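anyone seen this seq b4? input:
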Amino acid sequence: MRATKLPSKALPISKRSQPRAIDKKTRILQAARSVVAEGGFRELQMNAVANAAGVAVGTIYRYYPSRAELCAAVVSIISQREVEVLAEVATADGAPSDKLRDAVRTFAARAIRGRRLAYALIAEPIDPEVESTRLDYRRAIGRVFEAILHEGIASGEFRAAQDVEVSAACLVGAFMEGLVGPLAPDARGIETRANEIAESISVLCLAAVSTPPALQPLLKTTTKRVTGPPPRSHSASKVKKARPSSRKPSRRNHDEGR
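predicted toks r here
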């Protein structure tokens, strides 16, 4: 008897289409990232992303039901990469003070290289639903610096009398706020000063947590000393010394003083 050939077991439609779906989702995220890098979150409109990704607008809504969810996804993928880069610096060999300084400089240098994208991620006004994702990003970076601070306190390079969680949050706030001006869309000539800006911010952050002995070598090599006499006070230059009066007190004044 002739054997009957059994049909191959077909995969469910969702399983067969999964690779294509992942590919479309990746294209959408990459396109959205490019749109933000060029014009910020205000330019992140569904039509613009659809054109950049080569998909229909309805396809985007299939994965991201709202513009806010798409914005949050962009913030998430960008911030995750930045956290990974800083974590690599924090876990590398070296002194804690060098790690902290290198981490701040690395973040600043990367931000200046991708100014528009970094400004959108750090400072651009954004939907309230997306702000929580941005706060998660800051907290994740803060945890990286907490690890560096714990290591520095144990080695004696950083002050022991400090709340590590608070100090880490302050550091993140300081170097991000220090970059807002340089990253602003209307800032000019920032690329030529990138190293100077990154170094200045890193020194400030290190000074905030270091013990004085650990800080002195750094200050000698990174600060520019101003030579010459200190500037005269504007108000002091106009003040003349009062001359002693040669007039004798009147008898009337003398009597009134009794």
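The longest helix spans residues 128-155. Confidence is low (pLDDT under 50) at residues 1-17, 223-231, 233-242, 251-258. kinda curious what u guys think
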